[in-house]
Amino acid sequence: MRNDRVGLGWRPELAAGIFEALDRIDVLEVIADDHVEAGRRDREALKHLARRVPVHLHGIGLGLAGAEEVSTKRLDLFARLINGVEPEAWSEHLAFVRAGGVEIGHLAAAPRTAASVAGAARNLRKAAGIVGTMPMMENIATLVEPPCSTLGEAAWIVDIDAASGCGLLLDLHNLYANATNFGFDPLQFLAEIPLARVGCIHIAGGRWVDAPDGSRRYWLDDHLHDVADPVYDLLSEVAARALQPLTVILERDGAYPPLPAMLAELDRARAALAAGRRRRGTVLGAAAVTHAG
Amino acid sequence: MQADVERLLARLLTDRELRERFIADPTRIAIAEGLSAEEAELIARMPVQDLRAAGRSYEHKRKAKGEVARRTWFARWPWARRP
Questions:
Q1: pTM of the predicted model as reported, rounded to 2 decimal places
Q2: CA pair distance A138, A214, nearest whole angstrom
Q3: Pick from A132, A136, A161, B62: CA 20 to 30 A from residue A122's CA?
Q4: Closest C-alpha among A202, A63, A197 to residue A127
Q5: Residue B67 touches partner A, C-beta closer than 8 Å
């Protein structure tokens, strides 16, 4: 059985350091959108990298969880990249990024309804049909609860996974941010989603920001800070509850510390996973007692 | 319809002027943008501070995305060289 793995989001600013530290990085995640229009040499270079270390390609611009049908042209580009590079896996977000001709420019939370479940499942089937494999789908952070929703976030994710068979990329910092901003229990969320369907985990950091009118604060998922302590606690919790080997990716998008500091974060994630694995027997035993009762 | 709600939401997150007009009179704007009366009533319940915070965050993210050219070709890096 494969062991838990911990890796890093590949960023150009980190590239040289990553190359020197590949013995401490189990897996790399590369932003697919940065390379979909790349030339043959770049795709071959990426493929060569994927033969040295497991690579995941991560999409950010398909908008698979929106009401609009995902563009065949965009999927064709993804298919060319993914079939050329042959990554271990690919992933996208449970988000929409455009609607009615408006490009939002980032991930947005779609209203969580039966209609968006059906739309996401349709788009995911189309993506899998063109690319050849189904992406893992990531929960996103949002500062505004999607209006007109009839489902909670966990139930919406459960329904999309069940309708499409997509599998999940569980972003623990997005979970932490949403739980903090909207006042729900992240452990309950973990109890409600099918953890057995989680193929990858993201960890990241953020910061407090004030509302424009100063009336409240939000925890912002900015990927510019060290991984927040509660995220390591959630990682331990997932490791305690999940049976399958886990792949964890540290995401950082700027304000980069020296690479040794990031490698130390990877080691801390490994320690959190190990602590969770040690607890797993205890947690499962307690769950069995609860169900029996 | 889901598509109508997403279209208005996309505009509210990208168009500050529309966002402020919506905040001033959400139901009227939502109906004018094609939502049903029921959808308009639901979308009007969005907390104003959350919508403004989200709009500001998207503005920052779009600006940052424009400033950072992430694409660098792998072919430049040593690992790209064939063994």
A1: 0.93
A2: 30
A3: B62
A4: A63
A5: no
Please give the single-letter amino acid code of residue A185. Answer: D
- Asked if B72's CB is within 8 angstroms of A99's CB, the reply is no
Locate A203 and state its tokens. 């960890």
Cross-chain residue pair A38–B71, CB shorter than 8 Å: yes
Q: Please give the Cα distance from A144 to A139 (Å, whole number).
A: 14
pLDDT value at position A40? 87
Task: Choose from A52, A113, A117, A143 for mutation: most chain B CBs within 10 A.
Answer: A143
Test mutation, A11, A41, A81, A144, chain B, max B CBs within 10 A: A144
Can you tell me the distance from the alpha carbon of A270 to that of A256, in angstroms, rounded to the nearest whole number? 20
Q: Is B60 on the interface with A (CB under 8 A)?
A: no
Residues β-bridged to residue A103: A98
Residue A37 has pLDDT above 70, yes or no: yes
- Number of structural domains (chain A) is 1
Please give the Cα distance from A286 to A284 (Å, whole number): 5
A174: pLDDT strictly greater than 50: yes
Binned at pLDDT 50, 70 and 90, residue B81 comes out as very low
By the 8 A CB rule, do B59 and A24 touch?
Answer: no
Task: List C-alpha distances in Å: A105 to A74, A101, B26.
Answer: 16, 12, 24
Domain that holds residue A223: 5-292
Residue A126 pLDDT more than 70? yes
Mean of pLDDT values over A265-269: 98
